[in-house]
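Subject: Protein record for review, amino acid sequence with backbone structure tokens
Why sent: The fold of this protein is of interest and is recorded here as tokens.
Enclosed: The protein record, placed directly beneath this head.
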Amino acid sequence: MKQNIKINLTQNSRLATFDFSNIPFGKIFSDHMFVADYIKGQWTNFEIRPFGNLSLHPANLTIHYGQSVFEGMKATKLQDGTPALFRCEMHSKRLNASAVRLAMPTFPEHVFQQAVETLVSIDRDWIPAMEGSSLYIRPFMYATDEHLGAKPSLTYKFVVIAGPAGSYYSKPVTLLAEEKYIRAALGGTGEAKSAGNYAGAMLPTLIANEKGYDQILWLDAQNHKYVQEAGTMNLMFVIDGVLITAPTDGTILKGITRDTILKLLPDLEIPFEVCDLSIDEIAEAYTEGKLNEVFGCGSDISCLFYHIS
């Protein structure tokens, strides 16, 4: 069932001022955004409007207590120019799973998909045509109650913004296996795509950067031994011809691309295992010449698409 979404188009597009030959990640945004409000137990005020600032009260609960979740997804263009999305329905399900973990309301999945499709269709000219580029889409939800007190908000805002983006990484990524800090522990918020998870990772990532590495290779919280994921992506290892990736046991983000790859492997007749893999086993495989490949999978890799009318 289609939701009635109010559409208010901008009269001052910024598209003509953007240089598509120089696309920084996360700094340029398209002309419009989708917004909705959660008030008195229901979602309302569905609107696509010109991109602009959001107003926050100084006692906004998100600022003080961190009720904020988000998704990251992409739109590209097919050869005929038609916009295409990558498993939009999976992103709506994952956002809702994150919301439940942070005691936030879920957002209707059909409205999520309609909002993203409508926004991308309106701002389709912002999708770069160059190979490796895309329109990065950021749906997010945050608390909007205006008082202090460590308890769930009663009101929320859901927003979708988008902007042209090149590759997140322009070269092979170097990782530092982190032996002191942890990203997540069993029973925590590791599999939720919450803002706080990224805040906690910033110091160890900064330390890794200062040592010359691009990102962290996170190890398990209990033993600092088993590989979990990298700072911005799930990890996969090919050892002696077998693809191995860590299980999503509550500490690892359930990557949409990860799920897609695992579903495709049987048809490609590529053997794989979803199991714990220690950093020592990886080092041993490398020494013995059995470590064939290591790669990350996130929103930078897109495997399946569907058309947007």
Residues 38 and 156 are 5 Å apart (CA to CA).
